[in-house]
Design brief:
This protein has 301 residues and is α+β, with helices and mostly antiparallel strands. It has two domains: 20-161, Regulatory protein AraC (Jelly Rolls); 173-279, Arc Repressor Mutant, subunit A. It has helices spanning 122-135, 142-161, 173-193, 200-207, 211-222, 226-244, 249-255, 261-272, 276-300, and strands spanning 20-22, 32-36, 43-46, 51-58, 61-65, 68-72, 76-80, 86-89, 97-105, 118-119. Strands 1, 2, 4, 7, 9 and 10 form a six-stranded antiparallel sheet that branches. A four-stranded antiparallel sheet has the order 3-8-5-6. A hairpin with a 2-residue loop joins strand 5 and strand 6 (68-72). Helix 3 crosses helix 4 (200-207), helix 4 (200-207) packs across helix 5 and helix 6 (226-244) packs across helix 9. The radius of gyration is 21 Å and the shape is globular.
Length: 301
């Protein structure tokens, strides 16, 4: 028996037009951001008149929604409803790295995602990455594209949650899938071996491709060159170590694959705009200030 699917599940009942717009949180001045928190970060509570998406990239986040505690692990996300009380408890172990987006929308079906920790599939993670990239761009239509990526992420999440995600059928699917697997293999190799000295030839051999072919496919699928992606992995690892380990800058540089502290500091400053030691201090101070702001806002509420 064929299952009936409600085709209007994600449409506005008024005119059929679905819209989404980012909203700046007046308490933090943030609409969309990749946040990096020190271990033990807490947020004492908030409630606002817009929706919020929180996707965890690394570490974990213990979040309280309507007095129920949830642990959000890497690759998972939660949707916080309008005016829903929420707070963040300290997590043990690694520092949490996550994406947060504040928005208003008339998308029906979002309530299906509330009060649940849900996994994001590979396409969803790509959409959130694209959203962040456009939010950091000054190109024409960047904000509109970022909003479109988030809206697509939410629609796909609702479909998947309802069991309505159908198969993808494309004429070039099999070749695209083979290319995708080769890039995924290269990414897996990079993620595992980034602390070691690596060359483009090393990485291409691990993916089973020539260097030029891998470079072409990698840029097409990720928007980055292979070596730029390697540097971003090392910088992300450095951020975590600066936040949660007792190692000094020289030791961290060696641990993540840099031949000298000077090269590491130069690459880190180019990526983050500040030296590594100053970065660690600033993130801890920002986390403390935001936590205090949350406490004050909670008292006023």
């Amino acid at each position: 028996m064929k299952r009936e699917i409600n085709r209007t599940a994600v449409r506005s009942p008024a005119n059929g037009k679905v819209w989404l717009a980012f909203r700046t949180n007046p308490g933090t001045g943030v609409d969309v951001r990749y946040k990096e928190r020190a271990p033990g970060y807490t947020f004492c509570g908030d409630r606002h008149d817009f929706w919020e998406l929180l996707y965890v990239d690394q570490g974990s986040v213990r979040i309280v929604l309507d007095q129920r505690e949830h642990t959000v692990c890497p690759g998972e996300f939660v949707v916080i409803a309008r005016r829903q009380p929420h707070s963040v408890l300290p997590s043990s172990g690694t520092a949490p790295f996550y994406i947060t987006a504040h928005f208003q929308t008339n998308l029906m079906g979002l309530n299906d995602l509330v009060n649940a920790v849900l996994p994001a599939d590979e396409d969803g993670r790509r959409l959130l990455t694209d959203m962040l990239r456009e939010k950091g761009s000054e190109d024409f239509g960047a904000d509109e594209l970022a909003q479109a990526y988030l809206l697509e992420f939410l629609i796909r999440a609702i479909r998947r949650h309802r069991g309505q995600a159908g198969p993808v059928v494309l004429p070039t699917y099999f070749q695209a899938n083979a290319d995708h697997k080769a890039v995924a293999k290269a990414i897996e190799f990079l993620t595992t071996h980034f602390p070691k000295p690596l060359t483009l030839d090393n990485i291409a051999r691990a993916a089973g491709l020539s260097s030029s072919h891998l470079e072409h496919l990698f840029k097409k699928n990720t928007g980055l060159s292979v070596m730029s992606f390697l540097q971003s992995l090392r910088i992300q690892a450095a951020k975590r170590l600066l936040l949660e380990s007792p190692l000094n800058v020289s030791q961290i540089a060696e641990k993540i694959g840099y031949s000298s502290i000077h090269l590491f500091s130069r690459r880190f400053k180019k990526s983050v705009s500040i030296p590594p030691s100053r970065y660690a201090k600033m993130v801890r101070l920002a986390a403390t200030a935001e936590s205090r702001q949350g406490q004050n806002g909670s008292k006023r509420g």
